[in-house]
Amino acid sequence: MARASRPSFAPVPRRTPALQWRRPLALWAPAALALALGWPALMLSGQSSVFQAGMLAAAIGTILALISIGAAWAMGRAPRARRNVIRHMVWSGAIVAVVAPFVLASLIGAANPNTGLGAYSFAMLPLAVMLGLPMALFSGVVFSMVALVKPGRKTGG
Questions:
Q1: Sign (positive/negative) of CA torsion 50, 103, 101, 32?
Q2: Pick the residue with more confidence: 68 or 37?
Q3: Would you report the helix, strand and coil content of the chain in percent, each value rounded to 5?
Q4: What is the pTM of this model?
């Protein structure tokens, strides 16, 4: 009776190395932030009040994303793919987009207490999300492409 040969198994895959900051950091990190925040400025440059609100929301979303990326890095869970960085940017942009109409209504209500803007906050919510999420997605793609690089693969056994 012939003995069956042992099946050959694929080697255990190596972990994907974490993304690294592009060198020199003093050049690429500010450039990435300027590009990630600058393209909404170009898009909204004609309207003064919309420009200020959009830039404030984009800045707050980017700050929240950088805080969450930094926290993940500090906990030893550095992003291993660009999609992880983009996910941080989109989630923080989603939070800002959902909160923004309510903050705006409360600020307008504080300036003029006779306006009843509570229902308008809910009415502005879909528009804020429809505008905020694509902005956050594109900013995340731009930031991850400019600021971060994949480390070189090690060859050999």
A1: positive
A2: 68
A3: 70, 5, 30
A4: 0.81
